[in-house]
Design brief:
The protein is about 50% helix and about 15% strand. A 6-stranded mixed sheet has the order 1-2-3-11-8-4. Strands 5-15-12 form a 3-stranded antiparallel sheet. It has a two-stranded antiparallel ribbon with strand order 6-7. The longest helix is centred in the middle third of the chain and has 31 residues. The chain is globular and about 60 Å long. The structure holds protoporphyrin IX containing FE. The site of protoporphyrin IX containing FE (HEM) has 24 residues, from helix 12 and helix 16.
Length: about 400
């Protein structure tokens, strides 16, 4: 089958940041779900930076197949992108090496820990933050809440001292801004390495019950993680765990505040929080696109991809596939629930998905318990923005403290 070559045109580039979904929809309907081209904006990139053999998967079936077929589609591309800043991690591994390494690090994410983290860490962090603005009657929930609670949660999960939080917050933000300020990101990466090495060293002599402590003691068949594997994984948790959660919780709040009927329904019935979180993740995933390499010449939905092809795996488009969801372009927390693919699928399925869901649920529950009459201030036209990471520019709200 002939493959159409479709790229984002200069006219489409601005829309891609503001609202990429009409472009994704056009690509799905103009192609069989896979095409030669990209859903990323290459119009400003120097020719040399554009990989050869670019393809894009945009239908749910195509994206699902790429994620689930780790043999045909590998994630080594991370070695030359985010891997430069965080070091070698499971994100770029495959097969047996990935499985063994993932088993070692996932020891720190046991469901037993999750049960403990909710009352001991997440709820107190979220309520402590709300204390800081509850009496003000107005705030920007991005600055005061959605960016801050996952930062505080992760720093507590790692067992970092309270007084290090301002320093850690700065380094975390610098590291996750690697795509815009790469020099600062390299400096943050080096500083975090030294900082984490100190904590790893301490825990070797004095074991602790936190993620770093668990990583230091994790052992399978006599195999332990090296220091480099531990501090690289800890750096991975910043873009993987902090940035995604801050952006997805902002997206959910934005969607609820701009759909007041559905927001009122959630306020009246807390059982709707779970469906609202899933629909928020489907409708506005915080990460629209990841990449894979084709390990060998392979066919995907009727398109032959050459060995070494770079594939945009468009989660955002897959989540709006009209062949899977009726009225796929509508945000509807009441819709018949079908799994979305925001946490990927297959061997690289998100390791923090239960933590992310729990953090978002607790954040929403506490906001609803403690604030009433929450309204979005639309004067400066807050909106969801960005590519491939997306979230609201701001969430200015007014509210009253609940009685
Ligand atoms: C709503 C929030 C989140 C979303 C949408 C999300 C999404 C994803 C996606 C799409 C991947 C696969 C990337 C790829 O294969 O290219 C991934 C992997 C991963 N995520 Fe998440 N994530 C979220 C929260 C978290 C949290 C809270 C943590 C931990 C604190 C976390 C840790 C990880 C790790 C360690 C991986 C790598 C897994 C592997 O390569 O085997 N994520 N996540």
């Amino acid at each position: 089958m002939d493959t159409p070559v479709l790229d984002v045109t200069p006219d489409e580039a601005a829309d891609l940041l503001r609202n990429p979904y009409p472009i994704f929809q056009r690509r799905r309907t103009e192609t069989g779900g896979v095409f030669c081209g990209s859903v990323m904006d290459w119009t400003k990139a120097a020719e040399d930076f554009r990989p050869e053999n670019l393809y894009a998967a945009v239908s749910f079936d195509a994206v699902n197949r790429v994620f689930r077929d780790g043999k045909a589609f590998n994630s080594h591309i991370y070695d030359s992108t985010i891997g430069l800043f965080i070091g070698p991690t499971i994100l770029a591994m495959e097969g047996k090496t990935h499985w063994e390494h993932r088993n070692l690090v996932s020891a720190a994410f046991k469901s037993r820990s999750l049960l403990r983290w909710e009352p001991e860490i997440v709820r107190p962090v979220v309520n402590g933050l709300i204390d800081e603005f509850v009496d003000a009657g107005e705030t920007d929930l991005v600055r005061a809440f959605t960016l801050e609670f996952p930062t505080r949660v992760i720093s507590k999960l790692l067992g970092l001292p309270e007084e290090d939080l301002p320093w850690f917050r700065t380094q975390a933000v610098d590291l996750i801004s690697y795509h815009v300020k790469y020099k600062r990101a390299f400096e943050a990466s080096a500083a975090l390495k030294d900082y984490f090495l100190g904590h790893i060293e301490k825990r070797r002599s004095q074991p602790t019950e936190d993620i770093i402590g668990d990583l230091v003691t994790a052992e399978i068949d006599g195999e332990k993680l090296s220091d480099e594997a531990i501090y690289s994984f800890l750096r991975l948790l910043l873009p993987a765990g902090l940035e995604t959660t801050y952006r997805s919780s902002g997206n959910l709040l934005f969607l609820l505040l701009t759909h007041p009927d559905q927001f009122r329904a959630v306020q009246a019935d807390r059982e709707l929080i779970g469906p609202a979180i899933e629909e928020g993740l489907r409708f506005e995933t915080p990460l629209t696109t990841v990449q894979r390499y084709a390990s060998e010449e392979t066919e995907l939905e009727g398109v032959t991809l050459p060995q070494g092809a770079v594939i945009d795996v468009c989660i955002g488009s897959a989540n709006r596939d009209e062949n899977r969801w009726e009225r796929s372009e509508e945000f509807d927390i009441f819709r018949k629930r079908l799994p979305h693919i925001s946490f990927a699928a297959g061997e690289h399925t998100c390791m923090g998905l239960h933590l992310a869901r729990m953090e978002t649920r607790v954040a929403l529950e506490c906001l609803l318990d403690r604030l009433t009459d929450i309204e979005l201030v639309t004067d400066n036209n807050p909106h969801i923005y960005g590519q491939p990471f997306r979230s609201p520019t701001a969430l200015p709200v007014t509210f009253a403290a609940a009685g």
